[in-house]
Amino acid sequence: MANGRLEILKNMVAQNPGDRFARYGLAMEYRNSGDLEAAVREFQALAAADPDYAAAYFHGGQTLERLGRMDEARAFYARGLEVTARKGDLHARDELQAAQRFRKVGRGRSRRPFILSVLRASFRVWHFCKSQNPLDLA
Description:
With 138 residues, the protein is an all-alpha fold.
């Protein structure tokens, strides 16, 4: 089935190379199937064709990390930060900053502190939402 999706996405990109959603889907399918080099090529092509597509920088950087290409990952994240700052896309910017700060790309640090901080934040949000009475509008 995955090979079928890959072929469908390849055909979609071949028919319309400017379709950013198809190219992003193709890059993610390559990544999920383990063809990381092909995924990086697609993320780079997507960033070149549509420089404002923030997800390409985040997932492209992660893919470069998985390949051990830390300098390229850092550069890809940095380009993404520039794009998201210019666009005012705070959510994507925060994800890219987290990728740079908490993963310590290329510095061999553990991701455990980052994971624990995400869990703590998630718990605080859950606790806050649970404490609110949705029927109490006053």
